[in-house]
């Protein structure tokens, strides 16, 4: 059997899950230092990690958490960190819109 015969078909869900995971990795890097309100962000990330650990990927749950992230961002007092988090919020939305490339 050739390698192309066992090639996995990549679905939209696979692409979205991978893109969301990448956004979360970048988000974690942005908040490595402690700041006022960081505990809220860390709790939010824990919630997102739990969703990403599930075998099925629920876009609706991710969209709900994205909405919650918007509120969490407003609890952060450090303006520079808030701007970085808003960039991640925007990137998360783009990740949830991703589609698999069609051959």
Q: Mean pLDDT score, rounded?
A: 88
- N→C terminal distance: 21 Å
Structural class: mainly alpha
Query: Please, how many helices?
Result: 4
Proportion of residues in β-strands: under 5%
Shape: elongated
Poorly predicted regions: none
The value of Rg in angstroms is 16 Å
SSE arrangement, N to C: HHHH
Q: Into which percent range does the helicity of residues fall?
A: 55-70%
Largest sheet: none
Q: How many distinct domains? A: 1
Number of strands: 0
State the gist of this model.
With 103 residues, this protein is an all-alpha fold. The protein has one domain. It is 66% helix and 0% strand.
Write the layout of secondary structure elements.
Blueprint: H1 12-30, H2 38-53, H3 59-73, H4 79-96
Helix pairs in contact: 1-2, 1-4, 2-3, 3-4
Description:
This protein is mostly helical and 103 residues long. It has one domain (11-96). It contains 4 helices and no strands. Helix 2 packs antiparallel against helix 3 and helix 3 (59-73) packs antiparallel against helix 4. The longest helix is centred in the N-terminal third of the chain and has 19 residues, at 12-30. It starts with 11 loop residues before the first helix and ends in a 7-residue tail after the last helix.
């Amino acid at each position: 059997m050739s390698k192309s015969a066992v090639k996995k078909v990549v679905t939209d869900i696979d692409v979205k899950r991978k893109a969301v995971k990448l956004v979360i990795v970048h988000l974690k890097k942005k908040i490595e230092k402690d700041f006022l309100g960081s505990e809220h962000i860390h709790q939010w990330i824990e919630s997102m990690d739990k969703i990403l650990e599930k075998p099925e990927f629920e876009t609706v749950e991710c969209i709900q958490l994205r909405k919650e992230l918007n509120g969490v961002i407003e609890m952060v007092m450090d303006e520079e960190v808030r701007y970085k988090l808003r960039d991640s919020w925007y990137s998360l939305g783009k990740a949830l819109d991703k589609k698999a490339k069609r051959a």
